[in-house]
TrEMBL record:
The chain crosses the membrane at residues 44-63, 75-93, 166-189, 210-235, 241-262, 269-287, 357-377. It comes from Paractinoplanes bogorensis. Keywords: Membrane, Transmembrane, Transmembrane helix. This is MFS transporter.
Length: 400
């Protein structure tokens, strides 16, 4: 645990992780808040709710690299203030907008979502020494798991006890509060030696190594999104759907444990191998048809989830030159958002065509395919000729 203590003594990082957790928990819950508002508040179908959440998710995926590039050019605080104003306008008006207006408004809100995750990752890269970043990114991944466990559950509880309208306002206010907190902290996204870093053409850094990391980020979240749906479908078939939340919590707790262990290791596994193992350990969950056995079946995949996401973030941070770090981390966020958006319909189609257990197989295969592609691209990078890469880049190649 010494590594974690050293990370948390980095000036400002502990405060940033706390405030970022607040923002990320609300951002994680925003899809659930909008779904419940459309279904319960507007009395529309789940298809209509899916349209709103798809618009929001598409906006987040498209906006990631755009906001990251703006951070590179204008700094963190300017972008945070812009996105905070956009979130205030959207969430304050949600209960008053008809569906036809809410749909494009959700897309715009996604485009200008508070970049809490991206800023946190950039700050870790800028302030934490390279030898300690594995522990720092492990904490960041654990933070993400906590947000997924807490956020949607609180929204469901709040919508049941208060109202969907009120919960929409609460989620929006929490996103704004978290963004404002990060803006007040104004974390550095470049180290002292990187202050004069200039923008590098995309063709010089968006190469096979970075593409491998982005593909694996996409594959990991495609798998995770699909697993959530497969859990619900499996338990629904056995008449135990009310226990799905327990299985998801077990998965999340195992991920947190795995992330903490990963951050303390001296020699972590490469990203492609972690993702491949995650995919392979997901497939056997198809054999479980009872919530108790499903809790056991997801332990292995859960233990590898946070480590996989942490190594992806670490690799991107090492491969991205300082002058384009914002855009690179934005692309990573976009890849992960796209994976979350694709995972559910992909696995849903497999479930409809086969049986609920087919959802776990499809999700696991998606992770395996991404791992194989990532491995092939990373080997291509190491086998290439030309100018030797910098130390951080060489280490990133090892991590891939």
């Amino acid at each position: 645990m010494t590594g974690y203590r050293q990370v948390l003594t980095v000036p400002g990082l502990a405060s940033l992780l706390c405030v970022s957790l607040l923002a990320r928990t609300a951002i994680t819950a925003d899809v659930m808040a909008l779904t419940l508002y459309v279904v319960l508040g507007l009395n529309l179908s789940y298809v209509a709710a899916g349209g709103i959440t798809a618009a929001l998710t598409a906006g987040v995926a498209l906006g990631g690299p755009l906001l990251g590039r703006l951070i590179d050019a204008r700094g963190v605080r300017t972008v945070l203030l812009l996105t905070i104003l956009a979130q205030v306008a959207f969430w304050a008006s949600v209960p008053f907008l008809p569906y036809a207006v809410l749909l494009p408004a959700a897309l715009l809100a996604g485009l200008l979502m508070v970049p809490a995750q991206s800023v946190t990752r950039q700050a870790i890269t800028a302030t934490v020494p390279a030898g300690r970043r594995r522990a720092a990114f492990a904490l960041e991944s654990v933070q993400g798991e906590l947000s997924y466990i807490i956020g949607p559950a609180l929204v469901i509880l709040g919508a049941a006890t208060l109202s969907p309208d009120v919960m929409a306002w609460v989620v929006g206010a929490t996103i704004v509060a978290g963004g404002a907190g990060i803006a007040l902290l104004n974390p550095p996204v470049r180290s002292d030696g990187e202050r004069t870093a200039t923008r590098i053409p995309r063709r010089r850094w968006l190469r096979s190594g970075m593409i491998a990391a982005l593909i694996m980020a996409f594959g990991a979240t495609t798998l995770l999104s699909g697993v959530d749906l497969a859990i619900v479908a499996t338990l629904r078939e056995s008449g135990q759907v009310s226990w799905a939340a327990v299985v998801v919590v077990v998965f999340g707790v195992c991920s947190i444990a795995g992330g903490l262990v990963h951050g303390a290791l001296t020699r972590p596994l490469p990203t492609w191998l972690l993702l491949a193992l995650l995919g392979m350990l997901t497939i056997p969950a198809a054999l479980a048809h009872d919530w108790r056995w499903l809790c056991v079946a997801v332990v292995g995949a859960g233990l590898l989830t946070a480590p996989t996401l942490a190594t992806v973030a670490d690799s991107v941070s090492r491969l991205a030159p300082a002058g384009v770090r914002g855009e690179a981390t934005g692309l990573q966020s976009s890849a992960q958002s796209a994976g979350f958006a694709l995972g559910s319909p992909l696995v849903g189609a497999a479930i409809d065509l086969t049986v609920p257990a087919g959802g776990f197989v499809t999700a696991g295969l998606a992770g395996l395919i991404a791992a194989v592609i990532g491995y092939a691209l990373s080997r291509r990078t190491r086998a290439g000729t030309g100018t030797p890469p910098a130390a951080d880049t060489r280490q990133a190649m090892v991590h891939l």
